[in-house]
Structure formats: C-alpha cells, structure tokens
Design brief:
heterodimer, A: 584 residues, Rossmann fold, 3 domains, six-stranded parallel beta sheet, globular, B: alpha+beta, 4 helices, thiamine pyrophosphate binding (chain A)
C-alpha cells in the first residue's frame, strides 16, 4: 500500500485501521473531500442523520451498546456547533466518541469565512481533548491518538478539526502501530495497600453495600462478571446508579434497585445506614447523594475510579482506589478469596433483615386505574411483554426515564442507553437509531416522553431511510412531566409553560415518515397494542396516552438526605424548603 | 450504630491522610504544570480554572524545553485544601499535561517575579524613589528628567512592598510578570 494519499483518503484509511465500521454524519462544504472518499469505498458504512445532534446521540447509542467508540463526521461551523450537545452529553456520561469536523481552509481561518467557527475553542470544555490539524502529514497520527485518548482512561468524546485544504493535500499515512506513542496512559492497576484495606473492611463489615455505576459498564464485560461473582459470594446487597443498570442483573437476589433521587426506598435507606460503602465506578453525583453533609454518615467509603479527579470531589472517601474498575475488582476479589472469603456473616444476615423491612414498604407501588393508562403500568406491561427478548432500551429525559429505570429490568450491561449526567431531552430517538445500526436484529425500544421526543423527531427520517425497526414508545401526558412535578412541589402548582399545546397527531406523523403509528389510550387495549408494535417489522411510533398528572415517586427532594424520601403524593406538602428550591 | 474500624495496615500514601473536607481554611499554593507546548494548551488550563470556579492569583507560561515542545505553566491559586487537591487532580487528567507539582507542599522552593515600575516625580520625591530603589536592589532601565522605570526582581511580597513605597512617590504604572517558581535542591 502506498503511504502517499490525500488527507481525505487518510481519514478513511485511519478509521478502517481503527476497526471502524460505521460513521454517523451529515455532509457540508468543508467535508466534501472526505464524503467523496466515502463514496468510493464500501468498508465503512455512513449513516446519514437529519441533524448533527442526532449524529452524536446515534454515535453514543452505538458506543454504549457495543463498547466500541462511536464516530461522527460533520461539517464546519453549524455542523460543529450542532454537535456540541452530544459531545457534552458523552463527556458527562463517559462515552467514547470521535468527532471529525471539517474546517475552512487553513489560510482562511480567522477571517470569519463562510461556515467558519472556532470549533476547537468552542468544544474545548466539552471534549476530553481536541485537535486542529494544520498539516496533512500529522493527520493520521492525530486520528490514531484521538482513538487512544477517547478509549483509554475514563472514556469520553474527542474532536479532530480538519481544514479543507488539509483534506485535499497529499501527505504520508502512518498506520496505528507506527503512530507516535501518546504519553496519555492513566493508571489501571489499583494500589495494593488500598486494595488490602478495602478487603479488610469487606471482611469486617456488618452493613455493607455495593454502589456501582457506569464505570462498571465502561470497563467491559469482565468487570460485570467479577462484580456478579463478588456480590454473589459475599452475599452483600447491591444498588446502582442510572448509568450502571445492567452490570448486575435486576433479577439477581442481592439487587435493591436503583438508588438516588428516584431510587427505591431500600436502596437509599441502605446507603444511608450502611457501615461499608463500596462505590465502584460511580461518582457521587448530586442525584445520588442528596444532601452531602447528611450522606451515609456512618459508613467507611471505598471508591474505585479510573479518574483521580472523581475521588473526594463531592464526598470524602476513606479508601480511594484509582484504577480500572475491572482490574481493581478482580484484584479485590482475588485477595478476598485468597484470605478465605471472610465476611461478618451474622451481621450481614441482620442487615438483610433490616433491608427486607425497607423492601416491604414497596416504594414503587402506584395506584392503578382502569380508566386511564398509568405510565408505570405501561412500562410494567412493556417489561412483561418484552422480557427475555434480545432487547435494548434507550430513553429521553424526564419522568418516563425514571419510570423506565424503575420498572424495566436489565439483566446485562450495554442494554440501557440514557442521558444521565447532562439530561439531554432528544437523546433517545437518535440513540435508538445508533443501537439498532449496531444490533440490526435486536429489539430496540426508545421509552420517550412526547416533549423530549419532539426535540429530535427529524431522526424518524433516518429510521425510515435505513429501515430501522426502532420502537418509539411515547408516554404522552401532554406535559413536560418532570418540570410539572417540580412546579407542583416547589412553585405552588403554577404550571408555567410546562404543557404541550398543539401536539401533532403522532399516528399521522409516523405515517408521514413512512413508519407505523399506534395510538392507545385504554388500559384494556394496551397489551394488544404493544404486541402490535413488537410484531411490526419496521419503525413504530407508539402514542401511549397516559395519566397527565402522575408524579414520579419515590423521590428525595432537593436538599434532603436519603432517609427523608417522599413515597407518594400524601407526603409532599412542604417537602422542599427554600434551601432545596435553589438546587436543580 | 458502630463505625467500622479501619485497619492500620494500609499505607500512609493517601487513604488516611486525606484532606479534611470540612476544613474551610483558604490556602495559597504554587503549582508548576508541565505541558506539551501545543496550540491552545494555555486556553485549556485557564478554561479549567474559570469553568470550575477556581482562582488564579498569578500565572506565567513559557516554553522551557524547545526540542521536547514542553512548556511550564506556573499558577498561584487559592482555595480550601479540598479544592486545591481537586485542582491538581483536574489538571493531572488533562491530556497535554505531563506533570503537576505542588511546590507549596513538595519541600522548599524559590519563587521569583519581575516587575517594571514607572515613577513620576521631581525634587525630593525623585531622590527618595531612587534611594529606595537602591535599597531594594532595583535597577533603573529607563530615565527621563521627570520619571524612572525601575526593574525589580524578587519574591512577590518584596515587589508588593516596593510598589507600596513608590505609591506616594509618584507611582504611575506597574507591569509584573507573575510568579515563576522552582523547587530547591535536586
């Protein structure tokens, strides 16, 4: 193979050499040479989205469901700025993503040229790292480095800005093996002394809990496997953040459900009352901790994280272990086994008795109705009718997202794609497209709210074009449900701008896109309607009209501690004080 | 509820001598950050400070290893012990950052700054300014019949003191480089 080639060809060659099979993108003036090279080959499939934000979320869905980095190709200026939300989302949720942007030619940079934007400047705070490549000879090297940075350490989005003249010019291609070695090499093995301290704490703990997060998923299947062994053999209870669902199976004996603001009563009380917290690949986010000065006051905290800046950022921990979750868990497990698998089993038994009493509260209970479809009921039925299938679930952001986390069970990692850190409405539809592209034969469902879904509804065109049988399951309450809930609890039921007026007819909308539309408003029809959705071989827009004023419980109000959870409507009066009201 | 006892067997390296999160004392630290001298690296570091709400009291940057394309950024920052730790961790995980040294805690160090101080005046005030500059071992790098530009190097406190003394003597302009710092010994 000749090493001399244009920058545009180099991009394709580098992507191939990095094992990329799919690129999500949208063409424009500053990336035309690269699109010309895409036209001339068949190894890399290009998925044409309808908006650059859609490309980024599709790439996130692809990445989250495969463990491989997602690749995005967009043009300069508006192409790049439209990708900003998706990059920020990927940064917050640690999703590996490579974004290639076109740029005006180097000699025009700084001249306010047509479709020029300071892309590396704009995206500096929303990428893990970014590069402007001004020399074609540096292009391949930079792309290989970008993959290294995106996928090593705590994963995240990276961006490479490629001026058009660099794409046209000829340079020397460098394959990955010969690329400059990056000094970027985060520590993956945990400190042995810290691991020993953690194991000693495990042996003595009477009220232990595993608190796991998205880091377990990111670390790969081995991390989930050793976590399951560790939990199973220790008999310790386990809870997880929104991002970590599926690392431990929802059907597992030790599973307490999700924790945090809308987590289960048992998970949050166990977090509050535990004497040993094993935080594995989670980051003590404010949705998890509630009031930090009242967070799990009596516990020794072990924190395993590959990112040193996550340690002691929000919560002071006693035993920090910096390293890859999988490697550290394995080392902890091996040492624990070697020392005889000791636990304070009497204490742990009593702890479980306590936990069972919290479970008995049945915090996910809701009042069902024969008149209207309760959103919780819709998800229970969706769960029942899709259980055991090769199923992937994405969500938008809001009440439906929390209900999905509460009522759908995830048995394996990489099956649950949701915007956790940034909370991006409009994430779910394009993410479901990315997932379906990666898993053509799987059942991919986007659990959505009507308001979120409309934010990136143009991507229904992408689903139709590529005949992607994604199921858009919209819990339509004609409200911005979570905003409405907060206005009810915090702002005297003044529902400022939080209802959806002039909604489209979703069935007709589906048909306009060449998809199937289903409307369901009667609980008695729900099962049949869901089966109709599942049995249709093509994209479906399911408009599920649900109870309009349902609130999502349980809930830890802003500014409160885990043991101050609200269980239902009766308990909400004056639940949030003025201090809590300023929090988001 | 009994707190779980922590074994003493673990190392002193970090687990048990972590900064107390409730300690709200403001500390000033001097950080030396070794970075790749690549486009935008200073913007990246400054953006981290502004984006996360950290303070920059002083900042200097220059390439220190031309062949290795390395620059050294010296930042003086103020924050609680927990914030200082967080700043170091945040800097340390940036891709172009090779090393972060907290010169304030890593043994003795030397901090120096250079200032150019313009003083306008005639008569007694002019004489007094020149006399004080001599005491501070400042040099005169520009002179007119009504003004001097003094060049002064030293620790920031020394420069502060000099500027305070010049103020009543006709101080009209000050340019300071910010702190450059290095550890003592090898």
């Amino acid at each position: 193979m000749t090493r001399q080639m244009t920058g545009a060809k180099m991009v394709i060659q580098a992507l191939k050499d990095q094992g990329v099979d799919t690129v999500f993108g949208y063409p424009g003036g500053a990336v035309l040479p690269i699109y010309d090279e895409i036209f001339k080959q068949n190894d890399i499939r290009h998925i044409l989205v309808r908006h650059e934000q859609g490309a980024t979320h599709a790439a996130e869905g692809y990445a989250r469901s495969t463990g491989k980095p997602g690749v995005v190709l967009v043009t300069s200026g508006p192409g790049a700025t439209n990708a900003v939300t998706g990059m920020t989302d990927a940064l917050m949720d640690s999703i590996p993503m490579i974004v290639l942007t076109g740029q005006v030619p180097t000699f025009m940079i700084g001249n306010d040229a047509f479709q020029e934007a300071d892309t590396v400047g704009i995206t500096r705070p929303c990428t893990k790292h970014n590069w402007l490549v001004k020399d074609t000879d540096m292009l391949a090297d930079t792309i290989h480095q970008a993959f290294h940075v995106a996928t090593n350490g705590r994963p995240g989005p990276v961006l490479i800005d490629i001026p058009k003249d660099v794409q046209f010019a000829t340079g020397t291609y460098v394959p990955p093996k010969e690329a400059r070695v990056s000094h970027y090499a985060p520590q993956t093995e945990g400190d042995a002394d810290m691991i020993l301290a953690a194991v000693e704490a495990i042996e003595e703990a009477e009220r232990p809990i595993f608190y796991t997060g998205g880091g377990v998923i990111n670390s790969g299947p081995e991390a989930s496997a050793v976590l399951r062994r560790f939990v199973g053999e220790s008999g310790f209870p386990i809870t997880s953040t929104l991002m970590g669902l599926g690392a431990y199976p929802a059907s597992g004996e030790a599973w307490l459900g999700m924790l945090g603001m809308h987590g289960t009563y048992e998970a949050n009380w166990a977090m509050h009352d535990c004497d040993l917290m094993l935080c594995i690949g989670a980051r003590f986010d404010d949705r998890i901790t509630g009031r930090t000065d009242a967070f799990s006051p009596g516990s020794v905290k072990v924190h395993v994280d590959i990112d040193p800046s996550s340690i002691n950022k929000n919560i002071h921990v006693n035993i920090p272990i910096i390293g890859d979750v999988g490697a550290v868990l394995q080392a902890m497990y091996d040492l624990w086994v070697k020392r005889g698998r000791k636990t304070a089993s009497e204490g742990v038994k009593a702890w479980w008795t306590q936990i069972e009493s919290w479970k008995a509260v049945k915090s996910l209970n809701y009042t069902n109705s024969t008149e209207t479809i309760k959103p919780q009921y819709a998800l229970e039925r969706l769960e029942a009718l899709t259980k055991g299938r090769d199923r992937y679930v994405t969500t938008e952001v809001g009440q439906h997202q929390m209900w999905a986390a509460q009522f759908l069970g995830f048995e394996d990692p990489h099956r649950w794609m949701t915007s956790g850190g940034l909370g991006t409405m409009g994430y779910g539809l394009p993410a479901s497209i990315g997932v379906q592209i990666a898993h053509p034969d799987a059942l991919v469902i986007n659990v959505a709210g009507e308001a979120s879904w409309l934010m990136n509804m143009q991507e229904m065109g992408t689903a139709a074009q590529y005949r992607l049988p994604v199921k858009q399951f919209i819990l339509n309450n004609e409200r911005l449900g979570m905003v409405r809930q907060w206005q009810e609890l915090l702002h005297g039921e003044r529902y400022s701008q939080s209802w959806s007026e002039a909604l489209p007819d979703f069935v007709k909308l589906a048909e306009a896109f060449g998809a199937k539309g289903i409307l369901c408003s009667d609980p008695a029809d729900l099962d049949d309607a869901i089966m109709e959705m599942l049995n249709h071989d093509g994209p479906v827009l399911f408009d599920c009209l649900v109870e309009k004023h349902e609130n999502c419980f349980p809930m830890i109000p802003s500014g409160k501690a885990h043991n101050e959870m609200l269980l239902g409507d009766a308990s909400t009066a004056d639940a949030i004080d003025s201090g809590g009201a300023v929090l988001v | 509820m009994n707190a779980l006892s922590l074994k003493k067997g673990a190392s002193r390296k970090s687990a048990y001598d972590l900064k107390n999160p409730l300690d709200d004392r403001q500390e000033t630290h001097t950080l030396a950050i070794l970075v790749d001298n690549e486009s935008g690296v200073l913007a990246r570091v400054i953006g981290l400070f502004s984006g996360r709400g950290y303070n920059i009291d002083s900042l200097t940057v220059a390439e220190t290893d031309h062949s290795g394309h390395r620059s050294r950024i010296t930042v003086v920052t103020t924050g609680t012990p927990a914030v200082i730790e967080q700043i170091k961790a945040q800097l340390g995980r940036m891709v172009p950052v090779h090393d972060v040294h907290d010169l304030t805690v890593e043994g003795a160090s030397v901090e120096r700054e250079l200032a150019l101080v313009k003083v306008q005046g005639t008569g007694d005030k002019r004489v007094e300014a020149l006399r004080i500059s001599d005491v501070f071992r400042a040099s005169v790098v520009d002179s007119t019949l009504e003004s001097f530009v003094f060049q002064l190097t030293g620790a920031p406190e020394k420069i502060d003191a000099f500027i305070d003394l010049m103020r009543p003597l006709g101080l009209i302009d000050v340019a300071r480089t910010g702190v450059a710092a290095i550890s003592r010994g090898t």
